[in-house]
Amino acid sequence: MRRERALKVVLVLVGLLFSAAVYPLMMMVKQDPALAMMMSLYATLGVFLLLAARNPSEHRSLIASRHGRALPTRHLWLCRYFLI
Known about the structure:
about 80 residues; about 80% helix
């Protein structure tokens, strides 16, 4: 029970953080289209994470896919940062 509650709290916090990307998205739409596209993906993911926070056991695939994609992406950007 405690573990599920902690997961719900984390899902809500991350969902709110990603959904907060909507405001900067409006500011940078005309400046950099590629960055605006990435921000729109994160904003959409934030909405779905907020929906998944209601019943995390039903939305395990969304949570697992987000976690599975984040780790390789971080390593890729980290390698790219140090090579450039």
